[in-house]
Amino acid sequence: MLACFRRDVCRLGLKDKIGRVPNPLLAAAQRREYPGGFGKGAKRRDRVKIPTSNAAVRPTDLPDSELLYGIAPVLAALNKGSREIYKLYYRSDNVGDVFHHKMEEILSKAREQGVQIRPISKEKLARAVANNIHQGVALKVSKIKNHMLLGLGQFKDGQYEVSTGEDVYVYESRRKYPLWVCLDRIQDQYNLGSIMRSALFFGADGIIVDYKEGCEPTPQVCKASAGAREFISCFSSQNMADLLGQAKENGWTVISTTAREAGNKPSSTPDCLAGLDSPAIVVLGNEGFGIREQIINSSSMNVHIPVRADTPEMFDSLNVGVAAALMLSAIRFAGES
Questions:
Q1: 297: closest CA among 324, 331, 267?
Q2: Residues whose CB is less than 8 angstroms from the CB of residue 214 and which lie 6 or more positions away in sequence, other chains included
Q3: How far apart are CA 130 and CA 120, in angstroms?
Q4: Nearest residue to 229 via CA among 80, 71, 65
Q5: Can you tell me the distance from the alpha carbon of 193 to that of 234, in angstroms, rounded to the nearest whole number?
Q6: What is the pLDDT averaged over residues 299-304?
């Protein structure tokens, strides 16, 4: 049909100003003549509507806000309800996606909570999240304030105090004894996210990160944690050595995850972590340099994960996220099954 049209145009001498034969589809598009309509004279109901928002997504147009992205983090934020939720963005062409049933759950929860819902294009959503993998959804929320941790109190009658610069919180242990994870200068956000997920899975009450040299819990961290960041406490510390020393005085066992030879005391294997009868803090160190020597020497014990075969020297340790999962899985408090 198009070929016949072009032959007729040529025969009749109908060409544009520079002698080209017009493309009827392009011309229709330029006149905004969509199927079912005829340009400006078409009835509104006959025109094709593009079901996306024309407004750009601006992650920081609200004070103290951030843009979570990905199915799991968005669903976790909606379920937890600890943040202010401002707006939900989703890909309007996300039909048939493998996560479609989860998307329906997200949209349903957002409607229940009265959240503004904006369908937007794939391109705008990708730009808003700096081309990270977003799975077709993003949620604009308030930031979770990262408090400064000053001390962990004595564990008594299933409870203990967590002191910050502003308040004192009373925590109930998720396990027989409290379990915390302390990260000395962990800088990779994907490692932090992985550790958060493992800590939540193995029953830790909270995570401590280094205020000066540690990674902050960003939306990338939340994505890497599969939303676990919404359900576990995260505090900062300006002086980890003093914080851990005070915790030891309050009856906590401080466990440094080290290489086989480190510090001024022998290192054991994770088998020694079965039967602990006190609150515990597992310390993990920087991806390149490990735990600072001052912290290692003041720990209650050092534990290394043994190599099971001959391995090239450059692979003499595990990724810190993997090491965290192995250490936490090895802890068995006295009285736990």
A1: 267
A2: 183, 184, 185, 186, 187, 236
A3: 15
A4: 80
A5: 11
A6: 95
User: At 164, is the secondary structure helix, strand, or coil?
Assistant: strand
C-alpha dist (Å) from residue 155 to 87, 170, 244, 324: 41, 10, 15, 23
Rounded to 5 degrees, φ, ψ at 28 are: -65, -40
Render pLDDT for 251-294 as a digit per residue (tens, 0 to 9).
999 999 998 776 677 899 999 999 999 999 999 999 999 999 99
At 65, the amino acid letter reads: S
Rounded CA-CA distance 21/125 in Å is 38
What is the overall mean pLDDT for the chain? 84
Residue 289 in tokens: 């340099």
**pLDDT at residue 55 above 90?**
no
**How many whole angstroms separate alpha carbon 127 and alpha carbon 225?**
22
User: Tokens representing 194?
Assistant: 């992985």
Select from 63, 50, 152, 29 the least CA-distant residue to 92: 50
Q: CA 188, CA 5: separation in Å to the nearest integer?
A: 61
Q: In which band, very low, low, confident or very high, does the pLDDT at 56 lie, cut at 50, 70 and 90? A: low
pLDDT digits (tens, 9 = 90+) for 190-207: 999 999 999 999 999 999
Q: For the whole model, what pTM was predicted?
A: 0.81
Q: For residues 56 and 248, what is the distance between their CA atoms, to the nearest angstrom?
A: 51
Which residue intervals of the chain are DSSP H helices?
2-12, 24-30, 71-80, 100-112, 122-128, 189-201, 219-224, 240-249, 293-298, 320-330
Report pLDDT digits (tens) over 73-95.
999 999 999 999 999 999 877 65
Query: CB 133: neighbour CB atoms within 10 A?
Result: 10
DSSP 246-257: HHHHTTPEEEEE
